[in-house]
Amino acid sequence: ALADGAGEPGKTARELLRVLLADPLGDEAEWERAVKGHDTTQPLVVRVGEAKGDEGKGTTLTISKTNLLHELDVSSPALNGCGVELLLMEVNPLSASAAAAGQAAAVMDVETVLVPTVDIQSSSGRYTPVTTPVHKAIVVSEGIMGAAAVAALPLAEYRDSVLAAVNLPKYPVEEGEQLAFQPIDVSVGSNGLDRIRENIGNAMEYERAWYKSNVPAIVEWLKAGVENNPAGATKPVVKTHIASLLRNALAEIEAEQARLTSGRLSAEVASPKLAVMNERLAEWSQFAHEELQQQLDLAFAGTRWRKLGWWKLFWRVDDVGVLTSDMLNQRFLPGAERELVFLAGRIAESGVV
């Protein structure tokens, strides 16, 4: 999935798509002109693969303009054999609520990027939203403002599935290794493509422009995990997609469980029985506090405590444990202990816990 976040809608994404798929040894193909003039408000599906019967003849074109989606079949030297399909459309990966609140650290809704919604026009003229899941997504943005927008997105944990590419003309590619996004220079790659098509002798100039544009990094990221495995094993990109689906499903289950638990607790808090139990528990707490003060006053004023005067400890050192145990047994919350047993029974009877 390719999208453009700034500037002329879709211009950078369209040009990046053309540079990615174009054959530098062939003339400008009809599909390239179709991509340049495509309206990105209309999603475009690009199927990449060697055209049957036209091997070695370059890129071929098949466009289907129906009520569903615009489709383009392209043969590309860079991605042939990978079974890649690209969806070119405009998306907004920023959380709408965060953007409305003006938060600097906007949160990316991964579902919006990996499961974009396409509006399909029906015969009656109405548009029906249809989700179109993708295995990987490239968020294409433009300039400093585009870099600022994608820099706030949590891309590190989704590096294998979501890549942000920012068109920064004349930015040194070697300095972008530590950035959260991939800096590119689409105009340099496009100019290099035009130069080698003018004269094959400009091949060295094209190669320098190709690597300076940093488009090869995008190609390698697209190829990672999608190349055919001779052993017939599941492609890594498919495994990542399945893991993402399971992770999202688990998050939805946990959110639903939390919602149900919250609703149950709210209902319990509002129940009359719980209100009565809270009132009785408060009464018991107050009674226990008052009893503790009164009984301790009586204990320290009694004869047992006076027998433990410091000047008498030489004669009564063996009686300290016995006297203090009697004081605690008789004076330390005896009434509160009995009331607590009664309160526990009432709580169990009410069925609150």
From TrEMBL:
| Chain ranges of the Mmc1 C-terminal domain | 278-351
Q: Which Pfam families match?
A: Mmc1_C, Mmc1_N
Q: Which InterPro entries match?
A: Mmc1_C (IPR056196)
Name recorded for this polypeptide: Mmc1 C-terminal domain-containing protein
Q: Which organism is it from?
A: Colletotrichum noveboracense
Lineage, broadest ranks:
Eukaryota, Fungi, Dikarya, Ascomycota, Pezizomycotina
